[in-house]
Amino acid sequence: MFNRIILIGNLTKDPDVRYTPGGTPVTTMRLAVTTKYKQGDEMKDDTLFIDAVVFGKQAESCGQYLSKGNPVLIEGRLRERKWETEGTQKSKFEVIANSVRFLPKRESRQTAATESGISDIVPPEEITDLEPF
Fold this sequence. Notes:
Elements: E1 5-11, E2 16-19, E3 25-39, E4 42-55, H1 57-65, E5 71-85, E6 88-102, H2 106-115
Parallel strand pairs: 4-6
Antiparallel strand pairs: 1-3, 1-5, 2-3, 3-4, 5-6
């Protein structure tokens, strides 16, 4: 079996750093991951809100350097967490992160492009037509 997921999104709030009884750092974060697609002649957005859990030294770095709105790339595996509340079974999927990359904010990318003289280069368009052939 193969369980791997790669997401790019923005944090919806500051990361929450906690420690296990054994002293291992654990950081939880929520990402807003937006997919843009074309429906007929109209562009649409579909946003998913996904929780991610990071362990160890990387968890401490996330807590120290990331904040609400920061873009990140998370690579990891999906896990379903199950629990019971007042007799009702509940579950949710979350990403257990193997790797978290801090990405520059959009303004930083535009400033860097302008300073390097590549601001007039037009990026290729995304393939957004998801309609069947």
